[in-house]
Amino acid sequence: MTTAWVLVLMTVVLGLATAGPVPTSKPTTTWRGCHMGRFQSLSPRELEAFKKAKDALEESLLQNDWSCSSRLFPMTRDLRLLQVRERPVALEAELHLTLKVLRTAADASLGVVLDQPLHTLRHIHSRLRACVPAQPTAGPRPRSRLHHWLHRLQEATKKESQGCLEASVTFNLFRLLTRDLKCVASGDLCV
């Protein structure tokens, strides 16, 4: 099963690597203080640090027996299906979970390998928070695609094992960095 996950991940990464160029016009941002344009692509040094971290996490996962009851990040999930203003909310929730899970892995045994990626993710997360509008604390929430995704992430953290969460976050890491982050950074241009 791990081999299948690795093959799926490699297919996604290779597909993203052959994607077309980023549009040259500037995305429009409606939130004051939301400056995500610089994250349309990460530097080769940052991507290499993430590759080393992902490889180390995969090696760690191979040594443990884990089984997941659900797909935390299904292949059909695509931020482009959300409204532009909802995309930073979805990415922030995904990034929050990723940071939480990777911090636990770093505390366990992968600290040195995860230091740089965690630093980069914390920086992106801090910038992204300026793009996320405050959520109302009371009252009914509309049943939207965004609500469904957020609920799915919240439920998974309650019922999935740490090993399953690590596997899900690891296999989703490059999609988060190359597709989801790029989409939010592109704003209206991500279609």
Characterize the structure shown.
With 191 residues, the protein is an all-alpha fold. Helix content is 62%, strand content 0%. It is built from five helices and no strands. The protein has helices at 2-17, 44-62, 87-129, 145-159, 162-186. The longest helix is centred in the middle third of the chain and has 43 residues, at 87-129. It is globular. The model is unreliable at 1-31 (pLDDT under 50). InterPro entries: IFN-lambda_sf, INF_lambda. GO terms for molecular function: cytokine activity.
Comma- or semicolon-separated keywords:
191 residues; mainly alpha; 5 helices; 62% helix; 0% strand; disordered N terminus; signal; secreted; IFN-lambda_sf; INF_lambda; Interferon 1IB1
Measured between the Cα atoms of the first and last residue, the distance is: 33 Å
Rg from alpha-carbon coordinates: 16 Å
Described by strand count, sense and barrel closure, the largest sheet is:
none
Q: Report the average pLDDT across residues.
A: 77
Strand-and-helix sequence, N→C?
HHHHH
Oligomeric description of these chains = single chain
